[in-house]
Structure formats: C-alpha cells, structure tokens
Amino acid sequence: MAIYKKVIKKLKSGTWYPFYNSFYEKGLVDKRKILLESRGGTALESNIFALLKELNSKRYKGLKLVLSVKKQYRSSVQEKLRHYKLHVDQIVDTGSVLYYYQLATAGYLVNDTSFPGRFVKKEGQTYLNVWHGTPLKKMGRDNQDERVTMGNVMRNLLMADYLLFPNTYMEEKMSQAYMLPNLYRGKVLREGYPRNSIFFDSERAKETKRQLGYEGKQLSIYMPTFRGRADAVDTQDSLQILKKNLEELDALLGEEQILLVKLHPFVSAHLKIEGYRHICPFPQNYDTYDVLNACDILITDYSSVMYDFANTGRKIILFVYDSQEYACSRGMYENVERYPFAKVQTVQELSRELMTPGGEADAAFLEMYDTYECVEAAEKICRQVFLGDDLCRISKMEGNGRQNVLIYAGDLDQNGITTAFSSMMERLNPEKHNYYVSFRMNSVKEYPKRLRRIPENVGIVPIASEMNLDVITAVAQAVYLKTGKTSWGIGQRLKTAYDREWRKHFGAVSFNHVIHYNGYENYMISLLKEAPCSRTIWVHNDMVREVEAKKNPSRALLRDAYKMFDHVAIVSEDIRRSTESISGRKDNIVLIQNCQDYQQVLRRSESALVFDENTQSTVTLDELKKIFADPGKKIINIGRYSQEKGHERLIRAFDRFWKNHQDTYLIIVGGTGKLYEQTCALARGMESGKHIVLIRAMSNPMPLLKECDFFVMSSFYEGLGIVLMEANILGLDVAACDVPGPSGFLGKYGGTLLENSEDGLLKGMELFDQGKIVPMHVDYEAINRESIETVEALLRIAGTGQV
After folding, report:
1. What pLDDT shows up at residue 248?
2. What percent of the chain has a predicted confidence (pLDDT) above 90?
3. How are the residues of the chain apportioned to helix, strand and coil, as percentages rounded to the nearest 5?
4. CA angle 319, 325, 326 (to 5 degrees)
5. How big is the chain by its Cα radius of gyration, in Å?
6. N or C terminus of the chain with fewer C-beta within 10 Å?
C-alpha cells in the first residue's frame, strides 16, 4: 500500500513522466521531423525565429516543422507566425504528453537554451544548440551561484551534435564555463548567429522603420538587463529606479526622438510602458531583431545584445548607473569600460549622448565579438545540419589528451567521507588525468557553499535531475531492493532503466574510469554500476552492520555492485571480511587508506572558535569559552547524532566517571543525524548534565577540538574514523572502542583500544585521568603517499583496458 501511495503521489505531482520512457524506448526516430524550442517554450525569438524563417524556404520542403510553446504563450507565438507568414506543421504544448513524444521521435532537435531534465538524446537524433547570446555575465563553473544548478545546461551542451559559436570570445568563455574542451565530442560551428543576419539588410531596416511609423525620426531602443531574481525582483527598488529614469528621460527627449523599451518579461509584467510622450512599448508581433535592425541607437547596460547590434555599425550607449554594484553581485567576464561605446550614469548624460555622434564598434571589437557574422549564417547552418551540405566552418574540441575520470562525491556534507575525499582530491595530480567531481543537484542546492570543498583545479559534472521512473520500473526496483530478485524480467528492466539514466547524465562523454567515492545511495550505486568503463566503489564502513542498522543501501544491490565493480576500495583492513561477505568476491578488493590533510587540520585549528549562524548548542559560545577557561579536563567526541556512534553509552559512562571527577566536561559535536534532540534529553537527565555540552554542528570544529584533552570514539562500528586522525594531529590523547576500523588503525600505530562497552569507555576515561593513554606515532605523509599511489595505479590499469 505504501508503494502504491508513493506511485500515485509522484504521478500526480509530475515527478514521474512514464510516457516519455515508453516513447524513448519504442518510438521510431523520424529524420524528416524537426523540433524547435525557443527560451524553454516561452517565446519564438532570435536564433530559433531566424532558423524557422530559413526553414520556410522551398529547399527544405519535405521536412516537418514542430514548434514547442508553453500553453500561456501559444496565442502570442501564433500571432507572430501570422505576422511574418511563417508555417509550422504543428505546435505542441511544452511539457505535454505530445511534447515528450516529439522530443523522443524528432530526427532533429533545435534549442537555444536546454531541453528538460528528463530528456535523453536517442541514437539517430541530431541535436543543434544555438545558445541565446554571447556571455558578458559569468556563467556555469565561473559563477559561484550557478555551480549547483548548471547541470542541465551542461549536459544539453555535451549532448549536442552541433554547438554554434559566433565569435572567438564566446567559444573561449563557454568552453571554460562548462568544461567542454576535454568532454565535448560533437562539432563546433564557427558561424554567425542566425538572428544577426538581418543586420546586413539595410533595405529591410528602412522598411521596418517605415512600417512602425518612425520614418525620419531618431529611433532608439532601451534594453536593460534584468536585475532581480525570478522569485522576487530585487524588485521594488529596481522597478522604481527604472520608472523614475524613464519619466525623466521622456521629459528631455525632443519631438523627433522616439525611444522603444523592451524589458525582461518578469519586469514588463510589473511595469507598463504607457502614458509617455516619446517613449513607446516594444511593438507586438515583431521579432526583436527585426526592430533592432530599424533602430539608430541601442541603449543597454550589461546585455549581450550589444555584441549583436555592433554589426550594424551604429551607436551604442551603455547606461551603467549601477556598474560597481552590478559587477560585484553578478560577476562579469569583461570590464565594459574598455568597450568603444559611450558610457553614461545619469539620465541627463544619456539625453545629451543621444545627440552626440560616435560610439560605434571598432574593428578590434568586431574581430573579437562578431568574428563570424555574415548575411548567410541562417542558410549555411540549416543547409549544413538539415541537408548535409558542406558549407560551415567546423571544428572539434581538441582536449589535452588525458583520460577522463568521474568521481561521485555524495552530498559533500561535513563528515569524515567528505573530509577524506577533499584530502584525496588535493593530492591527486591533475596533470595525469582530467578529474570531474559529480554531485546530485537536489542534495546540495540548499547548501551551495559545500561546493567550495571541491578543488578549483578539477571539473564538476552536476547531476541535474532524478530518475526517469515509470510505474512498472518503480515496482520492479522496490522488489529488487528488498528481495534481490532479478527474475520475471526485473533485472533486465532495471538494467534498461539505468542504462538510460547513464546516457541521460553522462552518455555524451567518454569517461575512462568512474569512482563511487561516497559508496552509499541506491540510485547512484545502480547508476554507476552501468557505467561503460572501469568502475571503483569505496567502502567507508562495515556495511554489514550499516545495512542491518539503517536498511540502506540495499544489501542485494551492494552484493551485485561489489561483484560487478572492477575494484572495491576498503579504507581499513578491518572491514575486508565484512565486505567479502557481502559479495563473496575477494579478488577485486583493494585497501586504500583515507588521505589526511594534516596541514589543513593544523591551519583550521588556528582559527578563532566561533559558532556558525545556524549552530544549535546546549550552551552559548561565551559559556563554552568559560568552560575552556576552567582548569578541568575536557573529553570530546565528534560524530553525527546517529545510533551507531554510541553517544548514549558514552554519556552514561561519563556520568559515572564524573561522580568522582566533577571538574571534567564531556563535549559532543555532531553533524548530520537525527538523534540530537533525543541525545539532549538524555544528557539533561544525567547528574552530570550541566557538564555535558552538545553541539549539533559546526563548519570548523578544529579550534574546539584543539582546546580539548582527550578524544574518545564510542562507535559500535566504523570504517576508519577520520576524526581519530584529526585528534591525534592536534596532540590529544586518543582512545576508541575495539571495533573494526579504529581497531586496525590504533593497533597499527600503537593507540589505546577499549572494551566495546559502556564499561570499556569508563575504563578509558580512568586511564586518561591516570595518564596511561598510549601516544600514537603516525606518519600521515607516508599514508597519503601510499594511498595516492594506489589510486593512480588503479587509474593506470583502467587506462590500459585491463581490470
């Protein structure tokens, strides 16, 4: 019943779209059909409009044109089609069942942004992406705010058979922003933007100006950049400034001057252009570039339209009244102050500049930002892509010749796995392989700062969407994960589904090796299990105990994954036996100890002791500092508030210890985990409750750890326990219960092991009080060197095709 309710809920919410899977698997690709989509179905604009005009000529007779338009924009698009006497064979509502049928069966796909997250390009389909503008604002990896959400755009670009770059500057910036040089395997069209072809038609410019009724007047157009957020315009301030500027400018314009205003759709919904003498709204049913071609002057700020309009040789004015603020908030590739256009910051300056000659693009600007523009751009591209005529400048991304390695890192939350991952990534040599870190957008979008844990010298490939599920696959997956059954077609159905998922996320890229570093998550284990290359999965814990305690991941899935992955990397010799017991296979298990960035631990410990803005704790920061000023000893444990960390028995052991040592304190710092409130209640009920400090989470607990005296690990099971190393690096006495993971590490390096019980933890505290904790002597540099050598050896084996 629970599964049934879940299925119904997801179908109603649209999270699942079962029709698309059927269309994808069973629909035949029609090479005579072209699906075009502009701005996600919200318009018929610019490059897509120009291509559609070209496709209406007789040479493309026999091709079926399908246009994707969102339902609320259908009437305006139809009006525009009628105005320009353009024909399409079918308009489909973006996101509808019919839309997904066309997306799965059209032989040609054309977009100026990206198709939705569940889209997978099929064998036999040809995808042309004609991106919607030359970027001035930073994008993709270059924009901190976009790193979490860039995944769908990136995979669309990588899936495209053709990418259009109209100038050398754009090719450089987009390639670096989306890490294309070593990943993209399609063709680059070095041709002009189809929408800019009209700028070479002076007769059309005169005719449009006459049609609009502005013949003989100075016709300017103002196209400001959107300054808000789609969910809430920095709005009221931006709108009020815009309205005030327009009112002042209208009063200053002469009778022979007309200013057209084209606003971002979100802004235009809040501000109507009406009631002015010289300022008019953008004419309905006209294409933006048709009107631009009729204008004498362009006024903008940070919009890429300046690069396009430069082709006219006419005046451009940059009205940059907030240049410093905007550059700081958005980040830009270029300083527009260097551009050969007039810059103004006040309405009065703008009014004067409208009557001043000059301000056109110079030859150097055109060479950099309009490199390939020409009147035949739309024709050349359409004939090249749809008719196979060899007319375009075509190039391929050269790359650096190194092999590509994909590493799934999990949600990058602050825990031992993420710490070990970051330490490893800092030490892998980027000159030997191209490393790309992957993460699920939905797992980190609420915590974008986590991405700072990924080194800047490695690439990122975000996973932009969740699974394309249908009812039968969902049921099959539930049965398999619970029982391990693969009969009755269950195994084949899941293989088909995850093959499709691999193609959706990564199929356009050639990876030589994939690493599931996190080692958890049913979806990711299933996905990377189907990778068509060498595969390694990390084991950070005693997974037999982990599955017993949490029922996740699936024991059946782990069994099959540990059998099928080429390498299973255990972080401690202590968990070898439990890992072998899951798969029954020994030959693919390899020991790779966690790397430890000991220098970073020391550096972080030198920071001031602070709480984060959202830190929850049973004491204030000032109270904590007073505790550290007290001469009593401080015992500490760091580990998520979860059952396996043994916090309950640790607190009970401390309560017994405290009765004879009432100047001591126990401090527990957590992270993830669901037992914080329960643990607080337990501590409050103890006699020693006022000497127990519980902190839910801290982004940097190292200064706190450094101030403590004794670190004790109370876990029932572990993989290794990175925090053991961190405590040792900072000079604390260290002890742990004698369980797999800590047992091997402390045993190897001469540490103190305790009986795996509450009594054992009490004994450890007494040994600490008596000064009998054995110090450890660990060469962390040697551990790091050996671990990296082992990882790189696995990658070399993958590169030879051996496993």
Report:
1. 95
2. 85
3. 45, 15, 40
4. 60
5. 31
6. N
286 C-beta neighbours (distance < 10 Å), count: 17
Question: Which residues fall within 8 angstroms of residue 616, CB to CB, at 6 or more apart?
Answer: 676, 695, 696, 697
CA 799 to CA 402: how far, in whole Å? Answer: 10
Which secondary structure element, helix H or strand E, spans residue 479, and what is its range? helix 471-483
315-319 β-sheet, strand order: 279-281, 257-261, 218-222, 297-300, 315-319, 342-344
DSSP 3-state of 113 = coil
Cα(349)–Cα(252) distance, rounded to whole angstroms? 11
Mapped onto helix, strand or coil, the DSSP state of residue 750 is: coil
The token duo for 494 is: 């899941």
* H/E element, 427: helix 416-427
List pLDDT tens digits, range 541-579: 999 999 998 888 999 999 999 999 999 999 999 999 999
- What 3 state SS string does 61-80 have? CCCEEEEEECHHHHHHHHHH
pLDDT of residue 803: 40
Q: Which two tokens stand for residue 147?
A: 């790193």
pLDDT in tens, 716-729: 988 888 899 999 99
Residue 93 CB partners (closer than 8 Å, separation 6+):
69, 70, 71, 74, 99
Residue 44, number of CB atoms within 10 A of its CB = 27
Residues 46 and 119: beta-carbon distance below 8 Å: no
Interatomic CA distance for residues 113 and 41, integer angstroms: 10
Q: Note whether 777 and 746 are within 8 A (CB).
A: no
- Non-local (6+) Cβ contacts of 112 within 8 A are 37, 38, 39, 45, 46, 47, 48, 129, 130, 131, 132
- Beta-bridge partner residues of 644: none
Determine contact, residues 723/639, Cβ cutoff 8 Å. Answer: yes
Note the pLDDT tens digit of each residue in 784-799.
999 999 999 999 876 5
What pLDDT, in 10s, does the model give residues 393-415? 999 998 999 999 999 999 999 88
Residue with the bigger pLDDT between 325 and 729: it is 729
Q: Which among 720, 698, 697 is positioned nearest to 780, based on CA atoms?
A: 720
Distances (CA, A) of 443 to 117, 224, 410, 413, 683: 16, 35, 8, 9, 31
Whether 74 and 127 have beta carbons less than 8 Å apart is answered as no
Decide if 219 contacts 295 (C-beta within 8 A). Answer: yes
As a three-state string, the secondary structure of 272-319 is CCCCCCCEEECCCCCCHHHHHHHCCEEEECCCCHHHHHHHHCCEEEEE
> How many Cβ atoms from other residues are within 10 Å of residue 18's Cβ?
17
Alpha-carbon distance 388 to 390, whole Å?
6
Nearest C-alpha neighbor of 649 from the set 733, 559, 496, 755: 755
User: What is the distance between the alpha carbons of residues 440 and 421, in angstroms, rounded to a whole number?
Assistant: 16
What's the pLDDT tens digit per position in 145-192? 899 999 999 999 999 999 999 999 999 999 999 999 999 999 999 999
